[in-house]
Amino acid sequence: MKNITLSVFMFLILFGCQQDNHEWNPIFEETSFEYFNANLERSLSLIDEAYTEANQIKHESIQKKLSQTKNRLLEIKDYYIPLTVIRQKIYDAERSFKLENIEQSEKLLADSISMLSSLNATTKSEAFDKVILELESMMNAVIYSFKKDSKLNTYKKMKTLGEHVNLMLSRGDLVLSGVEFKK
Length: 183
Prior knowledge:
The protein is an all-alpha fold and about 180 residues long. Helix content is about 80%, strand content about 0%. The protein contains 7 helices and no strands. The relative contact order is 0.13.
């Protein structure tokens, strides 16, 4: 009896050690809306400079400043806001997955893919297209994983997806360098 109890105890210890902790709580992941503030501050600064130059009648410089301002505001409208909504949908999909509502999770990711299509239409840039295609591919991999992979593997893919989209927002200036949105 003592050997059986010891064996069961050892089995439980070994089983417990093999459990892979796959918790990911996006609410604890470092998120920021600094990308909104930075672009808005740049835009406001450019508008102030344009007003100053308007008083000094520097038409060429004013046009350049207003064009730069418009580009910054288009970045916010056509990149940062849609991607922020997509990030929220991905986080909500993760929460639904944890609650074992796979159908809702899949729907949220499919909605995100639809939003990506419209986001991709805002610019014609090979680098930007590649970034959007990579994100879409990651979302499709998670959707496919719902049906084919273990919960742990699906969860790992979902975690990577959430971290990736968050990085796209926080490092947006790297992604957007040289990209112009439709005016």
